[in-house]
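Worked example 4.2. Below are the chains of a multi-component assembly; read each line carefully before continuing.
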Amino acid sequence: MIYKLTIKKAKEWLANKEFSSAELTKACLDRIKETDETLRAFVTITEAHALEDARRADELIANGDDKPLLGIPFVIKDNFSTVGVQTSASSNVLRGYVPPFDATVVAKLKEAGMVMLGKTNMDAFAHGSSTETSDFGTTKNPWNPEFLPGGSSGGTGASVAADQAIAGIGSETAGSIRQPAAWCGIVGLKPTYGRVSRYGVVAMASSTDSPGPMTKIVEDSALVLNVLAGKDPHDATSSPKPTKDYTKGLNKSIKGRKIGISAKYIEGIEKDVLKAFEEARRVFEKLGASVVDIADLGIDILDPQYSIGVYTILQRAEVSSNLARFDGIRYGNDRSAFGDEAKRRIMLGTYTLSAGYYDAFYKKALKVRTIIVNEFHKMFEEVDAFIAPTSPSPAMPLGSSKNHPMFGEMADVLVEPSSIAGLPGINVPAGFSSNKLPIGLQVMGTQFAEDTILNLAHEFEANTEWHLRKPEL
Amino acid sequence: MKNYTPIIGLEVHVELKTASKMFCRCSANYFGREPNTHTCPVCLGFPGALPVANAKAIEWCIMIALSLNCEINLLSKFDRKNYFYPDLPKGYQISQYDLPFGKNGSMELKNGKKIRIRRVHMEEDTAKLTHIGHPKLVSGSNVDKKMLNQVQHDNVSLIDFNRSGVPLVEIVTEPDFESASEVKEYLQKLQQIVRYLDVSNADMEKGDMRLEPNISLRPVSLRGVSPKETDEAISKRSPRSARDDSALPPYKVEVKNINSFRFVEKAIDFEIKRQANDYRYFPEPDIPPIHFTKDQISSLESQVPELPDARFSRFLREFSLTEYDSKILTREKNVANYFEEAVSIGKEHNISPKQIANWIINKKPNVNDVLPASLVKQIVSSTQVTSIDEADLEKVILQVLSENQKAVDDFKNGKENVIMFLVGQVMRQFKTKINANSVKELILKSIGD
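Applying the procedure described above to all two chains together yields the following structure tokens:
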């Protein structure tokens, strides 16, 4: 059962020679064999690579090396370029594409000693919030395989929740880390845009894509962020702002912290989710934080539903351009291999960028985005963080996204405003629905306030037990 | 013909000679290199690869803009120009749309006319396509032989990505040209300027400088109306003609048999072309907007060397040269520098700038091999006249005249150029160089006597 360990525990045990990385890796690979026929979390399992990585890690451990993630088995979302390993972004268009280079995130994880177990399933090109748009089959929710894991990082979410790996990597454009983390009952950290390099991540919406950790506990996310954060000379949008040791200050008292909430973020959400949110609020209050409705502070914000419009226009526009490189000349598959969702997005994006429509759509969307950014800016002058349910509902049944082109946007309505503003957010497990599916809480902060939201999420986790529950598989 | 006048606008692409490409670290020096050896995930447009702008290229673009009297946008950005073509690996070209680095500049022609420069912007070059019919047809062309042998089929197109992502500066004029000679002068001056700045070889044969004229006609009655195209119209033009390396600019505007139907047709064609291309520009999200301070721009301005026009005027003034001499000497920066260096050395030897100018223009010394000091030495020795005893000289002259009686007679009969033959005969008798003019005068005197 060592596959159930967190990074934190696994590191301790590896250091104490309780087991080797090879043993831990083998345990994870066995767990994958045992569960993945049901879950379908993987596009590619790199068993031989993983065992080789583990063997090398064990040598280094024997030599007293203490790289931060040495010998820890990870799963990586299939849109991260991995040298020598297929990177399909779960699309037929890229089926069989083997990159000659590593994404910066992957390179940094390797440098930190990670063992890569494989590449996880996702919505094709990250277009969706269900993994149902994947050309490699739908991933199932480990809590109930009749339900969706969320997406687009649904493969990583399901894999980490099912203890197939110690930790995983996802990427979020608007909800793709936090929403599957919420639906699968794990921690998912979407860093500030620019905090973690996008180099080598198959682009979805370049102006919001943010890679981040998906882990079993908050501290693990901090550990991984320590490895990933920082300026990348290959990514001009990565921030030169100095990074921090994000594991420090996790235990800091949150007494006196001011946490904002808004009625606009709980309108129309499911009853169980609302209940969990109210409980979460009380946990923070019990810890001495003051939870305030921002309306009482005289702060007005746009209804999150407006961000759906903004996000849809900006993201579709960028998608239509980002997918142009798959022109049928060099990747073996022509454009007919695009799924319906990609085609819809290409058409909508092409339309909104067309002469005569640009001003009405794209430009207007940019203006509203600026309004949303400014609103958050104002809000975070008054509060330290902002909490809300991560998703309006727990996981939805398989098939829910079919014939609902706006499914993802509706499922992500509560994360889209902070995503288009480029702000950091973290999902922590915060309860269960009456049908035993996980419910998530998100803590959002101002730009580069990862330390603040990690601290709040950690203190919440330390005073609740939701993260300790495991799905039965 | 009397009813219309051609109006011509130019788009010129100048490839910069930076060490690396515009958005990656690959070498930008692709000419004559083995195809697809200067490539990386970025310039091949691999999924996930991201562009990082070459700061040197941006500086050089701004220096070109400053040299063309442009205003510099302190806030600028890159945009994506979306279109499909096999030489464009990303499916879009990173270019600049509404905030080019330079705008509203001008270049003065020698007739005093100012050609307005609409914009100077930065973009990336595309890959190079080679379309092959039967391989035998292309033997002798610069298609890589090895590659050709790998080609199994008769009809293929080859893509060389070495050029993909090489920095390209586009300079767009207003439609201010009215004749082919104006266009030619503009292009020559532009070429000189970028060479003076030392930012491009501007070798048209190698494709360092490529042009796309936009020609249309307007009735003479509209003269004085100065049409100004919108950015939108310019942005919608086809990029194709600008990239055909071999295409020479049609300097000549066909003005025969023009009638109003032809004019209408042209106008319609232009409009169709304009509307058919929609590049769906939007801000490049992978590159943050670029901010400059005024100080940064003045610092770049201070790096702009004295440009050909200014140098030409100074040469006239400072060295009392003719326009002809000044023009030739300032055509290339290294020749002008060479001249000035030689002048300052020559001053110590009483050699005038005019003498140096003549020597450089007539003898065309290799300015890379001959040091200015050696050049001055050559001039000094050529003008040094060994003084010879006049009596000796007269003796020799009389001897030469007596030995060449026929020549003397011819001269007397009006064949005046025979004199130079006699001068030569006299000078041959001396081992050192003597002044030909004084010999000539003495001969004339002797014959006259």
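Take a moment to check your reading of the output against the notes. The interface with chain A takes residues 41, 45-53, 80, 82, 84, 86, 89-92, 232, 236, 278, 280-282, 285-288 of chain B (CB under 8 Å). The two ends of chain B are 67 Å apart (CA to CA).
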